[in-house]
């Protein structure tokens, strides 16, 4: 299989493509021959990623806004692969979790995935691929991130249900469930731990790494490789799955 042509002619949308896992996916799909559209709320990071490959373009769109997602896909027309990757993680003990924090986490991680998949599906060609970047937090609990865990569990449920609806069109939809992955989101989580516990950044990082049985952080490229595989020629029977990418954490 020639890695530079496996996605030739495919149109791919990656939400949250301006950084971290989404940026890595955008570059890899572009290098594999796809035309890639990345989205996010801030244009500056999107522009930086788009300058790294001529097959990447960008659009500013907030996944929590129904109008943004509808006009994004209406403007794009037919697509082959939609990756609902945008997300955010805020932390607090449940007893100190305000309603607006709960709602923010559900909106970006769960409602944002719903709107991305629903609007993407309207424009998806038969044989297309839908992917949601959930988390190991969609499969198990972690302390101090109950709204994030609830939202990511919801993403896994959404994917399992949708898989039953789309299988007849040779469309698949799967959830990727990375453990702690080396991205800006993780750096923000480490900064929060440092601010709230007085631990050093090294201690906080070591603690997060220790949750992975292999004792290291997951790399964005490992999540990307799974997405490429799901969009490859022999993955059509993988549908409705929540795939843990966590060194055996779960
Ligand atoms: N890093 C980890 O340890 C880890 C582990 C498991 C799962 N994940 C999941 O992986 C996904 C990607 O996260 P990451 O680690 O790569 O973090 P990241 O670098 O912070 O990326 C998140 C992206 O989502 C975008 N975004 C946030 N809110 C948005 C909104 N309302 N509308 C549109 N875009 C929005 C951000 O861009 P703007 O701010 O410009 O909008 C950003 O580019 C997330 O779903 C996250 O939950 C991460």
TrEMBL record:
SMART domains found in the cross-reference section: PKS_KR
Q: Which InterPro entries does the UniProt record give?
A: KR_dom, NAD(P)-bd_dom_sf, Sc_DH/Rdtase_CS, SDR, SDR_fam
Identify the residues that the record assigns to the Ketoreductase domain, covering every copy: 10-170
Classification via Gene3D superfamilies: NAD(P)-binding Rossmann-like Domain
Q: Name the family the entry cites.
A: Belongs to the short-chain dehydrogenases/reductases (SDR) family.
The molecule here is called SDR family oxidoreductase
């Amino acid at each position: 299989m020639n890695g530079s042509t496996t996605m030739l002619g495919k149109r791919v949308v990656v939400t949250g493509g301006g950084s971290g896992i989404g940026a890595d996916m955008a570059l890899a799909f572009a290098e594999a021959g796809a035309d890639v559209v990345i989205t996010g709320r801030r244009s500056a990071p999107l522009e930086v990623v788009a300058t790294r490959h001529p097959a990447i373009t960008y659009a500013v769109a907030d996944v929590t806004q129904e109008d943004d997602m509808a006009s994004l896909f209406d403007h794009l027309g037919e697509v082959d692969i939609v990756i609902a990757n945008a997300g955010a993680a805020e932390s607090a003990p449940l007893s100190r979790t305000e309603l607006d924090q709960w709602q923010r986490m559900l909106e970006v991680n769960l409602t944002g995935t719903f709107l991305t998949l629903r609007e993407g599906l309207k424009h998806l060609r038969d044989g297309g691929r839908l992917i949601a970047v959930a988390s190991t937090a969609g499969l198990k609990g972690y302390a101090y991130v109950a709204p994030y865990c609830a939202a990511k569990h919801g993403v896994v449920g959404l994917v399992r249900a949708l898989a039953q609806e789309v299988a007849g069109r040779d469309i698949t939809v799967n959830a990727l469930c990375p453990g702690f992955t080396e991205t800006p989101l993780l750096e923000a989580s480490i900064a929060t731990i440092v601010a709230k516990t007085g631990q050093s950044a090294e201690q906080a990082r070591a603690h997060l790494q220790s949750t992975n049985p292999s004792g290291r952080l997951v790399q964005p490229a490992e999540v990307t490789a799974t997405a490429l595989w799901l969009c490859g020629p022999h993955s059509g029977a993988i549908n409705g799955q929540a795939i843990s990418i966590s060194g055996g954490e779960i």
